[in-house]
């Protein structure tokens, strides 16, 4: 039977449509897996605080906490049925408590508290779990890309702008570029913790309470950095959801750009990279196909993340700045979906990079003949003839036009091509030699000689990767510290409970 009346003056039970679309999702298996133990943890911290402050008696707190410990032992889901007539998760837990100790004892658990501040706290605790999982997966993925980069500092290829051959780079330098972007993306995700890990408990329905509670105490027991400083803000703010979703959306944009490059380079027309069989799929009709399956899905899922971010903004805009079910109830649903999509993107990208193969010979051959070394050829003329770069640029542009017009490759450029053009355009008697020209045209020497900050020379790329690894190790350390903070708070709570029960 229902222990106590949780519907107040409302006489009729919820409509079947309300049960179907609002109540049942809030007590589903997925919701129980996510929230059950966090409700229990909140109850423990709150009851310990009430007893410490003399608001409830020690004997009452002991009886309540004994049932809370029993619930903890149940694991991720309660062993008792979650009943829709009780409306939601908390009332089901409270009903179970009251069935064990009676309403005069169990009914004291909710003193100096509302569902509003309780739910706001539980959601933040739920988010912390998924947030830290994403952080760990993200860092593991970055490690994988790091290793691929370190293994391929010798993989010289043409870089591209506007999808046209630009200048020689290495695949390792490209990976380092992605890792710098991911480093910034991760900093945005990491920084969101500071706004997430604030405790609403004690805010009440929105107007605080006349009971002399200790919000700092409950905040510490639940592993939060601090209580939120205003009771209305405590129950009304969900900006951390928008911050995390925005950070995810920006990170997803980096995913899509990386996957688009790999997607193009995996085509037979380029042939620079090949994904492993485990992440590819064949056609049902065309047996020659090896479609880079994961790359397409990562791009699609990244779009979903960005859409979820926009959806959350739309739900939360123009809502009253207090507790309401638009921002507090519907708002977090976007984040649960985004966590799933983000984890999928990260894990799929990780496994894709682990098995990626490079066709280094084809990369170099293509770079030797697609005119990506022309900027260095212009630099060669500047050095040989002591002319301005703009003059050299004009000469080389006409050289390229001549070679393309006559169906010749970049590697076939020599003094006999350059000299008449330099003479015709600027009356320059070039002093450049064929040996100097071939050095300028060599994509490997070109890429390996760029040792200025950020360049493609192997030793410079390794410096970049070392810098990025140091930052990554710092990020991993922060996640470890945050997990330790939550675990330490949980242990502290259990010590206090056992001391009280003893």
Automatic annotation (TrEMBL):
<dbReference type="InterPro" id="IPR022761">
    <property type="entry name" value="Fumarate_lyase_N"/>
</dbReference>
<dbReference type="InterPro" id="IPR029419">
    <property type="entry name" value="Arg_succ_lyase_C"/>
</dbReference>
<keyword id="KW-0028">Amino-acid biosynthesis</keyword>
<comment type="pathway">
    <text>Amino-acid biosynthesis; L-arginine biosynthesis; L-arginine from L-ornithine and carbamoyl phosphate: step 3/3.</text>
</comment>
<comment type="similarity">
    <text>Belongs to the lyase 1 family. Argininosuccinate lyase subfamily.</text>
</comment>
<feature type="domain" description="Argininosuccinate lyase C-terminal">
    <location>
        <begin position="371"/>
        <end position="424"/>
    </location>
</feature>
<dbReference type="Pfam" id="PF00206">
    <property type="entry name" value="Lyase_1"/>
</dbReference>
<dbReference type="GO" id="GO:0004056">
    <property type="term" value="F:argininosuccinate lyase activity"/>
</dbReference>
<keyword id="KW-0456">Lyase</keyword>
<protein>
    <recommendedName>
        <fullName>Argininosuccinate lyase</fullName>
        <ecNumber>4.3.2.1</ecNumber>
    </recommendedName>
</protein>
<keyword id="KW-0055">Arginine biosynthesis</keyword>
<dbReference type="InterPro" id="IPR008948">
    <property type="entry name" value="L-Aspartase-like"/>
</dbReference>
<feature type="domain" description="Fumarate lyase N-terminal">
    <location>
        <begin position="49"/>
        <end position="307"/>
    </location>
</feature>
<dbReference type="GO" id="GO:0005829">
    <property type="term" value="C:cytosol"/>
</dbReference>
<keyword id="KW-0963">Cytoplasm</keyword>
<dbReference type="InterPro" id="IPR000362">
    <property type="entry name" value="Fumarate_lyase_fam"/>
</dbReference>
<dbReference type="InterPro" id="IPR024083">
    <property type="entry name" value="Fumarase/histidase_N"/>
</dbReference>
<feature type="coiled-coil region">
    <location>
        <begin position="462"/>
        <end position="489"/>
    </location>
</feature>
<dbReference type="Pfam" id="PF14698">
    <property type="entry name" value="ASL_C2"/>
</dbReference>
<dbReference type="InterPro" id="IPR009049">
    <property type="entry name" value="Argininosuccinate_lyase"/>
</dbReference>
<keyword id="KW-0175">Coiled coil</keyword>
<dbReference type="GO" id="GO:0042450">
    <property type="term" value="P:L-arginine biosynthetic process via ornithine"/>
</dbReference>
């Amino acid at each position: 039977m229902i222990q106590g009346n949780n519907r107040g003056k409302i006489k009729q039970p919820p409509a079947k449509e309300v049960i179907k679309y609002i109540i049942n999702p809030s007590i589903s298996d997925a919701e129980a897996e996510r929230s059950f133990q966090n409700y229990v943890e909140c109850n423990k911290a709150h009851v310990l605080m009430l007893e410490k402050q003399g608001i409830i008696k020690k004997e009452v707190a002991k009886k309540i906490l004994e049932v809370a410990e029993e619930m903890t032992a149940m694991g991720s889901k309660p062993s008792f049925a979650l009943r829709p007539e009780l409306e939601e998760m908390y009332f089901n837990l409270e009903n179970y408590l009251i069935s064990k100790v009676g309403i005069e004892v169990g009914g004291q658990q909710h003193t100096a508290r509302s569902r509003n501040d309780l739910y706001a706290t539980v959601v933040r605790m739920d988010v912390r779990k998924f947030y830290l999982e994403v952080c760990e997966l993200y860092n593991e993925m970055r490690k994988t890309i790091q290793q691929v980069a370190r293994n391929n500092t010798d993989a010289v290829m043409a870089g591209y702008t506007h999808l046209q051959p630009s200048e020689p780079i290495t695949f390792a330098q490209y990976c380092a570029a992605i890792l710098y972007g991911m480093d910034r993306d991760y900093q945005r995700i990491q920084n969101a913790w500071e706004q997430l890990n604030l405790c609403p408990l004690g805010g009440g329905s929105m107007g605080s309470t006349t009971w002399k509670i200790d919000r700092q105490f409950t905040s510490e027991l639940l592993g939060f950095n601090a209580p939120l400083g205003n009771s209305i803000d405590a129950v009304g703010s969900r900006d951390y959801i928008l911050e995390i979703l925005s950070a995810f959306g920006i990170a997803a944009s980096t995913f899509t750009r990386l996957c688009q490059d790999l997607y193009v380079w995996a085509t037979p027309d380029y042939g620079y990279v090949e994904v492993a069989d485990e992440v590819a799929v064949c056609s049902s009709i065309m047996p020659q196909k090896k479609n880079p399956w994961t790359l397409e899905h990562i791009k699609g899922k990244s779009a979903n993340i960005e859409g979820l971010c926009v959806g959350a903004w739309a739900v939360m805009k123009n809502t009253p700045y207090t507790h309401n079910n638009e921002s507090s109830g519907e708002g977090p649903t976007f984040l649960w979906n985004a966590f799933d999509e983000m984890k999928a993107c990260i894990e799929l990208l990780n496994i894709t990079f682990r098995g990626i193969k490079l066709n280094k010979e084809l990369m170099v051959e293509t770079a030797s003949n697609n005119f990506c070394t022309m900027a260095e050829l212009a630099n060669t003329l500047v050095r040989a003839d002591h002319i301005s770069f703009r003059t050299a640029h004009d000469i080389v542009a006409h050289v390229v036009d001549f070679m393309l017009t006559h169906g010749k490759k970049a590697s076939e450029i020599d003094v006999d091509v350059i000299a008449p053009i330099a003479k015709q355009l600027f009356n320059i008697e070039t002093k450049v030699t064929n040996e100097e020209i071939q050095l300028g045209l060599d994509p490997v020497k070109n890429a390996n000689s760029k040792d200025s900050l950020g360049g493609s020379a192997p030793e410079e790329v390794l410096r970049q990767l070392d810098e990025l690894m140091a930052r990554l190790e710092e990020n991993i350390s922060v996640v470890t510290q945050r997990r330790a903070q939550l675990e330490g708070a949980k242990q502290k709570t259990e010590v206090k409970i056992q001391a009280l029960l003893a």
